[in-house]
Amino acid sequence: MKKTPYCEMIALLLLIALFGCAGIQQEQTVKPQEPSPQPAAVAPPPVQPVPDESEMIRGRDREMLLGKWRRQAQGGDTIEFMEDGTVTLYSAVERISYPGSYRILDKEQLEITMKKGGPLTWGYAITKGDLTLTTPTGVSMKYKRYRGK
Q1: HSE (side-chain half, CA atoms, 13 Å) at 121
Q2: H-helix segments, the chain
C-alpha cells in the first residue's frame, strides 16, 4: 500500500490534535476570580469625650473636699473625705467614728451613705479653707480645714 500525501497530512493533524488536547480536561467549571480583600482602613483614634460643666465642677469640688475638716462648734467634731470615695465622721462628744461613703451630685449637693443607714443628700458650700454642710433637715454646720489639701 502506497502512502499518499493526504494520508500523511491527516495522520499529522490527528497527532497534533491528540497531543494538543491532552492537557485540557472536559467539563471543568471555571471559577471566577474572587476580588482581593481591600486593605483595612486605618481608623482615627477615638475622640476623648469633653467633660461637661457639671463633671468639671464635681472634679474640682472633689479635690477641694479631700482631707480632714474640724467643726468649730460642738467640741471639735471632724469629717474626713478620702480619695477612694469614703468618708469618716468623728463625734468628739461620743468619741465614735462613723464610716461611710460619699459622692458629689452637683455643685450644691453631695450624697453621704453611712454604713448603717441609707443615702442622704446634704447641701454643701466649699472654699479653700471653709466647708459648710447642710443636713437633710436644714441644719448648717461650718468646718475649717484641719488637714489635707
Answers
A1: 5
A2: 5-20, 53-65
C-alpha cell at 51: 467633660
Q: What is d(CA 49, CA 95) in angstroms, rounded to the nearest whole number?
A: 46
Query: Which domains are present in the chain?
Result: 66-148 (2.40.128.270)
Q: Are 90 and 99 in contact (CB under 8 A)?
A: no
Strand partners, 65: none
Here the cell at position 55 is 463633671
pLDDT by residue (tens digit) across 71-115?
A: 987 678 999 999 999 999 998 888 899 999 999 888 889 999 998
Rounded CA-CA distance 80/95 in Å is: 15
